[in-house]
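Forgive a beginner's question, but would it be possible to get a protein, spelled out as residues, together with the matching structure tokens, please?
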Amino acid sequence: MNFTKSILLTVTYSVVLLAPAMAVADDPDSATFQADKDRQIANVLEKVQIAQKNLSCVQAAQDHAALKVCEDTFKQDYDVSETKVKAQTTDKKAPQGAKNKEKQ
């Protein structure tokens, strides 16, 4: 298995394994559990899609320049995804009053 595949598998498995723990640790309230679970599933599926896209790109690469493009695209896509997840987490942790002020 090449290095890129190893990294992708490690990242994917880490996200999958940590997602349920993060959801339970962040909000013990059972009323919001399903919403948290759905959000976590969407985040994991997005990361899997990014990894699959990168895998396809790497498999199709014919030279080092193409591999570099795959790597750059993967990093950019992954960073966008992580930024979105952090924004969701920050929004979730904001006090209810702060959320209401933002909507106004």
In short: DSSP finds four helices and no strands in the chain.
